[in-house]
Amino acid sequence: MNFVRDLVFQGAQMLLVLLLSPLLTGFVRKVKARLLRRRGPPLLQPYRDLVRLMRKEVVLAESASWLFRVIPYIVFAGTWVAASLVPTFRGGLLFSWSADLIAIIALLGSARFFLALAGLDVGTSFGGIGSSREVMIASLAEPAMLMIVFTLALIAGATQLSTMAAYMASGAEGLRVSLGLAVIALIMVAIAENARIPIDNPTTHLELTMVHEAMVLEYSGRHLALIDLSSEIKLLLYVSLITCLFTPWGIAVPDADVQALVAGVVSYLGKLAACGVLLAVFETAIAKMRVFRVPAFLGAALMLSLLATLLLFVSGSL
Amino acid sequence: MTAYFLYGVGALFALAPIAVVLAASRAASGIVYIACLLITAVLTALAATYLFGRPVGSAIILPLGLPWLGAHFRIDPLSAFFLIVVNLGGAAASLFALGYGRHEKTPQRVLPFYPAYLAAMNLVVSSDDAFSFLVAWEFMSLTSWALVIAHHKDSDNVRAGYIYLLMASFGTLALLLAFGLLAGSDGHYAFEAIRTAHPSAGLAALVLILTVVGAGSKAGIVPLHAWLPLAHPAAPSHVSALMSGVMTKVAVYGFARIAFDLLGPPDWWWSILVLALGGVTATMGVLYALMQHDLKRLLAYHTVENIGIIFIGLGLALAFKAHSMAFAAALALTAALFHVLNHSVFKSLLFFGAGAVLNATGERDMEHLGGLIHRMPQTAFVFLIGCVAISALPPLNGFVSEWLTFQAILLSPQLPAWGLKFLVPAVGALLALSAALAAACFVKAFGMSFLGRARTPAAANAEETDGNSLAAMYFLAALCLIAGILPGLFIDALAPVSQALVGTGMPHQSGLAWLTIVPVVESRSSYNGLLVFVFVTMSGSIAAFAIHRLASDRIRRGPAWDCGYPDPSPATQYTASSFAQPIRRVYGTSIFHAREVAEMPPPGATSPARLTVELRDLIWDSLYAPIATFVGFATDRLNILQFLTIRRYLTLVFAALVLLLLVLAI
After folding, report:
1. How far, in Å, CA of B577 to CA of A137, rounded?
2. Are residues B452 and A106, on separate chains, in Cβ contact within 8 Å?
3. What is the pLDDT of residue A207?
4. Is the pLDDT of residue A209 over 70?
5. N or C: which terminus of chain B carries fewer CB neighbours within 10 A?
6. Residues ≥6 apart with Cβ < 8 Å to A134
7. Interface of A with B in 101-130 (CB under 8 A)
8. Which helix (H) or strand (E) covers residue B597, if one does?
9. What is the rounded CA–CA span in Å between residue B194 and residue B182?
10. Mean pLDDT of A103-122
11. Where are the domains of chain A?
């Protein structure tokens, strides 16, 4: 019985991240537009875009290979599986033990690896510029992320995300220096990983400022829809990750009753909205960086997270 | 058991003269490689049955070598594991060479040395006394040197061979001294005797340093790696695979044998040396690799990175063992040894792929390749699997061993030594950095060679490689997947090894539900490659099915979009150098003193603009170049010794004799 219940919740979680992620992106866009005193696209616009793209035919470059057609599915599957393993409104996910936080990060790494290959497949200069910059950014963001994972794992005594989230929710930890450093670093990494301002601009098509968009420039139709959906899921994943580890209030425990579950869902949606507003405000307030300023930004994140880990190695109480 | 091995080694040795006789005939390469394939396959199976069965040591003493010593051979779990690595690599390389070797222009320069090389590696791993170990080690160096200069008309290869020979002799010298110290003044060269005689702390430290130098120079530890990226690519590709995938592991075996087995209980500071070298090696190796545009040299530099990862695992195991945390030591050691196996599998696969590309196009330079996925779809597919595996991405095998290493690092705050408290997190960061850079490196390697549009006619007209080569590559690719999704089996197989070296094995894995691996306890960390693989495959297929069914499955081919300005010339694509430019600017300016010089012609001039990149190898400049200069200077000065009269020579001999007698007298 418990197994069936857990299975249902795991399935619900998979559908939830899939269905909710375009809404989060739409919400951020809407808030950004309002902050700029524009009316902005309707909240549901990302869904309409996805549906329209999926119905359109794919225009494939003549020099594209079979790999180019497979990659959108690989990227989508990797991102979706990773997102399904991050607790959202309820902890203790059924398949949490199949991949810990390191494996989740590595799954996102796989998705990026293939996306960077897609940028090189058609053999255009834009694809190349996007891929080469993406791997440069990843080469700093990924180690920073792993050091953040180290910090959290040393505090929680586990790399298992459900255990970590439950430990954080238990209130056993108060304010700690290393946690503070880790959350700053994690937010910096999340901004870079999701190609947001100031690292990259998700709305631009100006050739020299774009990284992610340049990589996927040759995609169209259903392939583009899948890649857009993957980026939206990835944004939701990072927001869920930050909230379940650093603001774990309200997450329902595995054997919670209906009331607690409703509270979990409501608090989760509230946290998503709050993070969306914060992201929009941050993006509106800041200008995009030159691409070679990015290493300094991410290097700072790496140093902060390394410092956090070092503190934990040196002293158990920092 | 050991006797069967020696029969196999004897058969391999016997093949060498047969190959000399046969070399002229056309069937020679087929016969030699089939024989090597059969022998190594049998030896792999033997070693595997030994490791999976109930391992009991069995020793054999042959009346060879030193008269009062004989040649000792013994198979124990550690050597059985490395015998699997050696012979599995050997079998795959022989299968690959069945196809690849037919293109060899001078088979008589390769065929006799190849089986001897395989035999030598087997001997190193199974020998049980210092004398046979060193003889086999030197024999392995010499046969591989002969294979490196097989294509001796290319002056680069001859230079690579020369540097390799120098470094190999230097490494053997260090090992010779290490064993000399271990054996003591009474000359107890048998490992059995060395094991029971515990050297004093100072002596043990000296032995460890000499071992790191000796085995490390063969494995490619920075800064002793200089020969490796020159020599490995120079050999024929199946030999490159053996050198990179297998011989570096034999060097790891040498280190593990001495540091974990012969030297007795370790001091905690040994691990500082090994960990620091491992971290530097991992990062420097991948950064060097990123700067290359020769496919085989990139792979060779990447071997340096993986050796660094293995040494990080070994260093952690030493640290845990020194603090009697046997359980954590078993985890770190298992991670390192699992990475040994994994690296030998995917590095061989990648070198085979590079060899297939070299045969099909005659090119190793990625700037002259491109678009091969259209011409060689199967090679591209298996090469891609190798790239994903080596970049430590789930669900393939490279990820599992790095994951285990990370888990071992997470156990290390319990280490009491302060030096380690600062070093281990830094090494963890270097490991994470090198993992991320490895992914960048293999995006470049695969993307530049196989994707995009062909940059030269040779690449545009490449043909798919032959069936035997493909079979070897598919076999290794399948192993990458199996070791990735069923790691529990491999971890269990390694349990006797860590039992023998650090006193305990990792908990039994293969009985766990769903074949998960759980290094410590389940609430702490667990990973299930099989489920991750199934989930990813399922969600990808569901998405594909749903979209094709419910939305659209139409496709139209058209010219590339490229923001509206597509250029038909393949020269407008990104090249390997331009792909690495951002990373070069971030990391290379300090480490390689990278400089970009742009030459812009004045307006109106018709000469092309040029961008040249200058990289300096600081390790070479600051370590090797001064030594070379000094040796040159010294030989110039001592040159007069060559032109003395007979009386002066006799005086010299007499003086030397007197000096020696004086030394003895004192």
Report:
1. 17
2. no
3. 60
4. no
5. C
6. A112, A115, A116, A119, A211, A212, A215
7. 102-103, 106-107, 109-110, 112-113, 116-117, 119-129
8. strand B595-599
9. 6
10. 95
11. 2-314
Amino acid at the residue B376: M
Is residue A131 predicted with pLDDT exceeding 70? yes
Is residue B146 within 8 Å of B184, Cβ to Cβ?
no
Which among A58, A98, A213, A312 is the top mutation candidate for probing chain B, defined by the most B β-carbons within 10 Å of its own β-carbon?
A: A98
A132 touches chain B (CB under 8 A): yes
- Distance between B447 CA and the closest CA of chain A, angstroms: 6
Query: What is the per-residue pLDDT across B463-522, written as a single tens digit (0 to 9) for each?
Result: 999 999 999 999 999 999 999 999 999 999 999 999 999 988 888 887 777 778 888 877
What's residue B57's pLDDT?
62
- Closest partner residue to B393 (CB to CB) among A113, A121, A222 is A113
Please answer yes or no on whether B552 and A97 come within 8 Å at the CB atom. Answer: no
CB–CB contact A123 B451 (8 Å) = yes
Rounded Cα–Cα distance for residues B451 and B560 (Å): 14
Confidence label for A277 from pLDDT (cuts 50, 70 and 90): very high
Best A110, A145, A218, A289 residue to mutate vs chain B (most B CBs within 10 Å):
A110
Contacts of A147 in chain B (CB under 8 A): 425, 428-429, 432
ipTM of this predicted structure: 0.96
For B317-336, give one letter per residue: b (16+ CB within 10 A) or e: bbbbbbbebbbbbbbbbbbb
Contacts of B529 (CB under 8 A, 6+ apart): B394, B395, B399, B400, B484, B485, B486, B487, B517
DSSP 8-state code for residue A171: T
B41 pLDDT band, cuts 50/70/90, is very high
Dihedrals phi, psi of B557, to nearest 5 degrees: -90, 140
Structure tokens at B250: 């034999």
Report pLDDT digits (tens) over B173-209: 999 999 999 987 777 888 988 988 888 888 999 999 9
Across the interface, of B531, B552, B585, the residue whose CB is closest to A221 is: B552
Cβ burial, residue B400 (10 Å; 0-12/13-18/19+): buried
Which residue in chain A has the smallest CA separation from B287?
A: A139
Query: Are A215 and A122 spatial neighbours (Cβ–Cβ below 8 Å)?
Result: no
Cα separations in angstroms, B652 against B584, B641, B655, B656: 55, 10, 5, 6
- Per DSSP bridges, beta strands B71-75 and B610-614 are unpaired
Q: Closest to A98 (Cβ–Cβ): which among B532, B562, B567? A: B532
Residue-averaged pLDDT of chain B: 92
Closest listed residue to residue B360, CA positions, set B436, B235, B450, B254: B450
Residue B288 has a pLDDT of 94
Which of A67, A106, A139 shows the shortest C-beta gap to B393? A106
**What is the distance between the alpha carbons of residues B191 and A249, in angstroms, rounded to a whole number?**
61
First to last CA, chain B: 49
Question: Any chain B CB within 8 A of the CB of A218?
Answer: yes
Does the pLDDT value for residue B378 go beyond 90? yes
A315 and B CB contact within 8 Å: no
| B316 CB-contact burial (10 Å; exposed 0-12 / middle 13-18 / buried 19+) | buried
Residue A61 DSSP SS3:
strand
List, for residues B606-650, the tens digit of each pLDDT value: 888 888 888 888 889 999 999 999 999 999 999 988 888 999 999
User: What is the pTM for the complete model shown?
Assistant: 0.95
- Is the separation of the CB atoms in B345 and B476 below 8 Å? yes
Of B451, B557, B572, the CB nearest to A125: B572
Q: Which positions ≥6 away from B568 have C-beta within 8 Å?
A: none
- Chain B nearest C-alpha distance from A136 (Å): 5
Using CB atoms and an 8 Å cut-off, which of residues 252-291 of chain A contact chain B? 291
> Which pLDDT score, from 0 to 100, does residue B302 have?
95
